């Protein structure tokens, strides 16, 4: 029985310390945020956006030069959902002064249940403020906290394209955030390029011209190689001659690298080095395990690797 579990994580964001090869992007995001800029971070799904945001938050908590609030908007369908996600993000904040102020603000607002969802639709409660007002109030809290503590806050809206289908969400957002730049910056992260493009580029939409774009590219080969070697060596294995085949097949796609790396790792016995035979078995298993991962023609040995 092997004493190690596989060191490869491929099913969601990774811990901050495992993020590799993104130093330039992290520095760019930090510089822009410090300067009060709004940024749109675009990359295909599973390219490492949420992991990068987690790392940015982690680094900022350590350095203390900026306070990062990450709000996950995935699956939000209406203004009530948005208010809940903001409140949840504030409630998760660390026990710093900024964190305490935002948690207190969210708790005060949470006593209002603007609507009750039922099988027949949502019903408003008499006397409760409309959800839009609660959302506006939640959006105004970062500025108040930043002013009180004299700190820079970065609010990250992950899976931002969700707001496209929510009536009025972009206007509410803009009405609040456009006056916050001196203390609060915004990072909009998303993966559906055409939806993001519509939100940000259509002149009729309120967020027109508000954000600079930063595209997350493929993971460069060098950090990808070091990452695989480290993961194999720290668990008593050697990626051997399979390493090059793995890097080529992943072609700079971070999650594909981890998924195929995991399969190769499972086909490399402890104390041994992986070879072409192990790679072929690993690749066949990985392809069987998933339909979406990769087109077979993209896996030809010798295909030029990205990075
Ligand atoms: N910088 C990175 N270093 C190492 N692995 C990464 C990196 N970025 C992404 N990954 C891999 O990709 C997977 C998906 O990352 P995630 O942050 O959830 O992507 P996204 O938010 O873009 O969908 C992770 O589980 C990990 O295997
Ligand atoms: Mg994500």
Question: Topology of this protein?
Answer:
Elements lengths: L22 H12 L3 E5 L6 H15 L3 E6 L6 H13 L5 H14 L4 E4 L2 E4 L6 H19 L3 E6 L10 H9 L6 E7 L2 H9 L10 E4 L5 H13 L8 H9 L3 H13 L9 H14 L18
Parallel strand pairs: 1-6, 1-7, 2-5, 5-6
Antiparallel strand pairs: 3-4
Helix pairs in contact: 3-4, 3-5, 4-5, 5-6, 9-10, 10-11
Bound molecules: adenosine-5'-diphosphate (ADP) and magnesium ion.
What does this structure look like?
The protein is an alpha/beta fold and 307 residues long. The protein has 2 domains: 22-215, Rossmann fold; 221-299. The chain has helices at residues 23-34, 49-63, 79-91, 97-110, 131-149, 169-177, 193-201, 221-233, 242-250, 254-266, 276-289; strands at 38-42, 67-72, 115-118, 121-124, 153-158, 184-190, 212-215. Strands 2-5-6-1-7 form a 5-stranded parallel beta sheet. The longest helix has 19 residues, at 131-149. It starts with 22 loop residues before the first helix and ends in an 18-residue tail after the last helix. Residues 300-307 have low confidence and may be disordered. Magnesium ion (MG) is lined by residues 49-50, 158.
Short summary:
The chain is of the alpha/beta class and 307 residues long. It is built from 11 helices and 7 strands. It folds into 2 domains: 22-215, 3-Layer(aba) Sandwich (Rossmann fold), CATH 3.40.50; 221-299.
Which terms summarize this structure?
binds adenosine-5'-diphosphate, two-stranded antiparallel sheet, binds magnesium ion, 2 domains, elongated, Rossmann fold, alpha/beta, 307 residues, disordered C terminus, five-stranded parallel beta sheet
